[in-house]
Amino acid sequence: MGHPKHPTPAQARFYETISLNLRYYRNCLEMTQVQVADRVDCSPKYISILETSCFDNPPSLPILFYLAEALEVEPYKLLKPLA
């Protein structure tokens, strides 16, 4: 069974939460997208795509873990809406 090409509305909300949290925690550390990309070993363009929530392919769990480590937060904080 294949996965749908576009996220469901519920999934889209999670993508938006991930995007907002990535930007928030990056800004808290006063890091650029380039600096995060260097820590995660990906391209700055990928970080930019993730932060806009306009991505068709969500980040894998390993990438989420690398992002959390780079941003010095527990992984669940990238999935939980900010208060």
How are the SSEs placed, and which strands pair?
Elements: H1 9-28, H2 33-40, H3 44-52, H4 61-70, H5 76-79
What would a concise description of this structure say?
By secondary structure, the protein is mainly alpha-helical.
Mind describing the biggest β-sheet? none
Number of strands: 0
Order of helices and strands: HHHHH
- What structural class do helix, strand and pairing data support? mainly alpha
Cα shape: globular
Relative helix content: 55-70%
**What distance lies between the first and last C-alpha atoms, to the nearest angstrom?**
37 Å
Q: What are the low-pLDDT stretches, counting only 5+ consecutive residues below 50?
A: none
Q: How much is the average pLDDT? A: 90
> Radius of gyration from the CA trace?
12 Å
Percent range for β-strand residues: under 5%
What is the tally of helical segments?
5
Keywords for this entry:
61% helix, mainly alpha, 83 residues, single chain
What does this molecule look like?
The protein is mainly alpha-helical and 83 residues long. It is built from 5 helices and no strands. Helix 2 crosses helix 3. The longest helix is centred in the first third of the chain and has 20 residues. The radius of gyration is 12 Å and the shape is globular.
